[in-house]
Design a protein that fits this description.
Layout: H1 2-12, H2 23-38, E1 55-56, H3 76-83, E2 92-94, H4 95-106, H5 110-124, E3 131-133, H6 148-151, H7 184-195, H8 203-220, E4 225-226, H9 230-245, H10 258-265, E5 267-269, E6 275-277, E7 286-287, H11 295-308, E8 314-316, E9 323-325, H12 334-348, H13 357-374, H14 385-398
Antiparallel strand pairs: 1-7, 2-3, 4-8, 5-6, 8-9
Helix pairs in contact: 1-14, 4-5, 5-13, 8-9, 9-11, 12-14
This protein binds protoporphyrin IX containing FE and 2-acetamido-2-deoxy-beta-D-glucopyranose (3 copies).
One 2-acetamido-2-deoxy-beta-D-glucopyranose binds next to loops.
Length: about 400
């Protein structure tokens, strides 16, 4: 309860300016209308329109299963990229690797990939080398190599915290142990929802899935936590399934079909009808989306998911079905939600400091400096130092130092 009280304070004292509809919000709405007009395929006979699109992978990026020391983790997108060499095959990555790899493989917008990579570095990686592991902790991320273990462990994306979240599509909540391996029964559950939409993993299906996983976490996970930063991001990851894994451009003739989705999730169908986990890969005969999907689109989708399914932010208070909602009143438009996410990130960098303090101070201010410009167009108010203090208090409580 103490944690929630502080969070409530942090947001209650935070006044957003009257919702200014930025040009970006308008652009987003225009694009949506355009996309609606372009959807021509019927659910019963969906044939992807891929004219002019790029087939992925190219000859330089063949599939190779990861070796024993290669890191793979909770993100099927990054795992697939690494299995094809669009990211370093060892799974130890820099921001530059992420930006170029996600653009080449999936046409992810540079602002979105920079943003996600920054979170990976700040929460799960090394502030100084700016490397993180896309799986478990790994001394190769650290400037100090194995010496780092004395100072503290950089968790990698497997690390449950500000990034890895509860209510994933195909991964169990960290409370149940393994938060990063694809669970065949969860894949089958997702598939059964897609079946209600003609077998398509479209946005409506993914919204139903998000609501179901949210309810399951409330009912089964006493530690369920759904707050910025990780909460909105786990919602965004559901939209990624339709938007990035679709064969062709989603909303413009693309089809998020079983062949595509199962390959990306590494879900192999066995003769008896159940699934087993295999390394993620690009499907055969697959075409990357033609238009970039960036930060504005991602935050727009997150807001759409949250509002259409009434997903309240909050957390279970140590028991199942004890959800305490927290009213983030400002999360009603794209700009408001964007600013909440930005502030939560800045207030939280880094979640644990385990490195020489002078180097870290420099690294933090340079990271915070990199986050701000990404959010320029959302018209966020200047970052409020009192919030930093609130978040610092939260971090202390989280790490048992209070
Ligand atoms: C750009 C850098 C990226 C980073 C740092 C990143 C990181 C992550 C992390 C930490 C998770 C775990 C969330 C959780 O289960 O709690 C995740 C999940 C996910 N990511 Fe990524 N990701 C990135 C890019 C992508 C891309 C390009 C795609 C798709 C092409 C993608 C698709 C997904 C999906 C679908 C999930 C959800 C898996 C599930 O819930 O079963 N991600 N990502
Ligand atoms: C920062 O927060 C304090 C309350 O903690 C509030 O009085 C002040 O107006 C806020 N400043 C800005 C710029 O939002
Ligand atoms: C993608 O669409 C193209 C064109 O319709 C088709 O030939 C190809 O088989 C599809 N690939 C997948 C994985 O469904
Ligand atoms: C399906 O087959 C696999 C592999 O042979 C086996 O491990 C699994 O238990 C079977 N599942 C069911 C429901 O029979």
């Amino acid at each position: 309860m103490k944690l929630l009280a502080i969070l409530a304070f942090a947001y209650a004292t935070y006044a957003f300016p009257a919702a200014s509809r930025s040009k970006l919000t308008e652009t987003l709405n225009e694009r949506r209308t355009l996309n609606d007009l372009r959807i021509r395929q019927s659910d019963s006979d969906p044939v992807a329109v891929v004219d002019g699109l790029t087939q992925i992978p190219d000859d330089d990026h063949p599939f190779m299963a990861p070796g024993p020391t290669d890191q793979r983790g909770p993100c099927p997108g990054l795992n697939a990229l690494a299995n094809h060499g669009y990211l370093p095959r060892n799974g130890i990555v820099t921001q530059a690797d992420i930006v170029s790899g996600t653009a080449a493989g999936f046409n992810m917008g540079g602002d979105l990939s920079e943003f996600l990579a920054l979170i990976g570095i700040a929460y799960d990686g090394d502030l100084i080398t700016e490397k993180f592991s896309i799986g478990g902790p790994d001394s190769r991320t650290s400037l100090l190599g194995s010496l780092q273990n004395i100072l503290g462990v950089e968790g990698g994306l497997d690390h449950h915290g500000p990034f890895e979240a509860d209510a994933s599509a195909t991964r169990d909540d960290a409370f149940f142990g393994d938060d990063h391996t694809m669970q065949p029964n969860l894949y089958a559950q997702m598939k059964s929802i897609a079946a209600q939409y003609g077998g398509l993993y479209n946005l409506d299906a993914m919204k139903d899935l998000q609501l179901l996983r949210y309810q399951q976490s409330i009912e089964m996970n006493p530690t369920f936590y759904f707050m910025p930063v990780s909460g909105p991001l786990i919602v965004g990851a559901k939209a990624f399934i339709s938007e990035f894994f679709s064969n062709g451009t989603y909303g413009a003739g693309g089809v998020p079909n079983e062949a595509s989705i199962s390959a990306f999730f590494g879900a192999e169908l066995l003769p008896n009808g159940s699934f087993t986990a295999v390394p993620e890969r690009f499907p055969d005969n697959w075409y990357r989306r033609g238009t970039p999907f960036g930060l504005v689109e991602a935050i727009g989708q997150i807001l759409d998911f949250i509002s259409s399914k009434n997903l309240a932010f909050g957390a279970n208070a140590g028991a199942v079905n004890s959800f305490v909602p927290l009213d983030l009143a400002a999360a009603t438009n794209v700009n408001g939600l964007a600013c909440i996410i930005r502030d939560a990130i800045q207030g939280n960098i880094p979640s644990s400091v385990e490195q020489p303090i002078d180097l870290v101070e420099q690294a933090i201010s340079s990271l915070v400096g990199l986050v701000d410009p990404l959010f320029d167009d959302f018209g966020c108010p200047a970052f409020n130092a009192s919030e930093t203090q609130a978040y610092n208090a939260i971090n202390q409580i989280n790490s048992g130092n209070s």
